[in-house]
Description:
single chain, about 300 residues, alpha+beta, 3 domains, 14 helices, tRNA-ribosyltransferase
Amino acid sequence: MTEIGSYIPHFILLGRPRISQCRCVSCREQPPLVTHAWANHVRHSALLQCDTVSREMLFAHDAFELHEEAAVPVDGAALDVWQNDVNQACIDLLIVDGLSIEERMYAIGVLLNKLSKGGGDGFETMRPFAMANELMQLALGGAFRTLFGQMPAISRYKASYLRRLAKIPFRVSLDEHASKSLNLKLTELMLMSDGFLDDALREIEGSNEVSIFFDKHDETWINYFLYRCFHEVFPAIEREAYGQLFLDLALDYFCVRSLCALLANDVELDEDVVAALFAAWYRSKGRLGRDDHVDPLLVGFSLISREAA
């Protein structure tokens, strides 16, 4: 009988007992451990809405070391070859050494932009890997650092999405003091005039506490985006949606950093606090909404740039 690959990340193997016993707001509604099975491929995953999953996954350098086992094929559709190849190309760009997380994201945005303009059904499936390799060489040579640094600051997109963020009712697994502090800061943002909102944005962008935390925990964002690639098989199969899907990644980055910055003035950022913010964001991010931007790629690039306007 033909066998297929079945993959499970290291963080699930290590954390399964704790994840299975979690009783957070997400786990009271749905089990945290899930399996995505195709006729030719199986991925064992977990829901990032779960506070314990977030805590187990975000801060381990080997979180996405994959363990492979043989499995029996299941009935149903196969994982699309093109989708799998683009997914792996994005993963390759995430794990390349020597780049900041913004540069890795920039490379993914460029890759998706190029692939979205590819040929039709005859577009060769090896193309994503060839493009990713080409982009890696450019990035490692410093080209993306230069290009990214030359991008014009477009603060209006950040201000617009910051207002939307302030309107989301978050359920965050923090103590009473931290929860009240975050809700108060979000309410203040919601009521601010445009001028004061611009000032608040500059403070958020320049948060020293946030920079210190993520510099110390440099695996956090890589793990988060590896999770999205593994769990969702990002960026899906519809090439025409690649720009919007990249914008979705950029919104994750911008919004979670903003939540961390809002809380950092009153609460010390540690792994438990930041994991709770990631989980709360993942539970509620669907409420943010997105505009139908003419150039979502440009908007995404502006959101991951930390240069204050």
